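Q: My labmate handed me this sequence with no annotations at all. I'd like to see what the chain might look like in three dimensions before we decide whether it's worth expressing. Could you predict it?
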Amino acid sequence: MSADPIFAPLRFRNLEVPNRILRSNISGRFDNYNGTGTQARINWEESFARGGVGAVISSYCPVHLRGRILPGYATIDHDNRIPFWRAVGEAVHRHGSHYILQLSHSGRQQDVAGVENRGLKALSSTSKTESFHGFECEAMSKQQIAEVVDCFAAGARRAREAGLDGVELHGANGYLITQFLSSAINDRKDEYGGSLANRARFLLEIVGAIRTEVGDDFHLQLKISAIEHNDAVFPWEKKGNTLPDSIEICRLAERAGVDAIHVSTGSMFPHPLNPAGGLPPDVARDTYDTMLSSGIYTFRNYLLARWKPLRPIFNFLWNHSAKGLEIEGANLPAARAIRDAVSVPVLCTGGFQTASLIREAIEDGSVDGVTIARPLIANRDLVRTFAAGEDRAARPCTYCNRCLVNVIENPLGCYDLSRYEGNAEAMMSEIMSVYEPSGFEPAPT
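A: Here is what I predict for the chain of 445 residues:
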């Protein structure tokens, strides 16, 4: 029998990962309000390394406080953050896994700005209000663009100084880099808007600045929404970037110095196609109120989730574009097209939790590796399950998205009670396990 391709090393230009499964970027509000890290974050990241993933891609890590999506996420905006990220990396490395820090900036997609940003409009490529939540923003000046480019470069330097294995630019799912790349969002009239080459300028300047800061021998990958589907909720909106657009962006990024492409989809987060599987209105009723002051349309959305007679409207707006979608591997055709167009390895996210499907995708050349988030939250030992010869976990992820809707104000974890046979105590015990050990030991009495 030939060796299992899932467990073949994945070689990048500057990094080798021991298998083809990476934990995708996902996390909760485990850290301090001011962006300093906690033991809970270390426990969270280490749990996936212990489960056998080849690498962990961090959650959204802001390069500046003005670019965070929520308070309670550790940042990389100051040199005093380096010791914490070093501790995270060391915990992951203990299990033979690698750690890639995702450098991010929210742009206008800011769920809860926090007190430090009170009174400030979010920065973006545009001054257009975001259409789903109604996040208001202002188009960045050239000076602000240059400052944010420097923030990304400084974040990469700090990641390297922390001993981490690489960085990923979050250029997908509606965050700031997407807001520049997107033909639906970017309405600038200067050299950062208009043509695809102009819309890609911000990204390419970031890549260039990172390479100047850390050199050519540090791993750098790009996450991109291969197809934006910007009209998925409101069909009268522009569709946004197409697959051919993204292929050209990936080619430009490769020439600029990117070592890998990470394929996603969607022009915002959450998006009906990312993460596919629905947006449970009963959970949104309990958590979305946290965002009521964040956008001018948030009260409308809250009412659609809060009042049962309005939920059919909520469900239709969110689910109509994903009707009939096969969730697992939905991004593979786009990933294959990008892989055919570039010479660097291509990763793909999208609900993966079946070994045979992952194996086939690697063998047929669709991808070089896959990234997994929700199914790993449901089953931290999924990789070990595959290694034992099983095709799927005994209790697979149901794609209910209760994990992601809870995370606005609750700890991240699997909230699908059916997976615990109705045992709420067992469910909560698993969710809260991320807080142990606490990192604080009381003095003996």
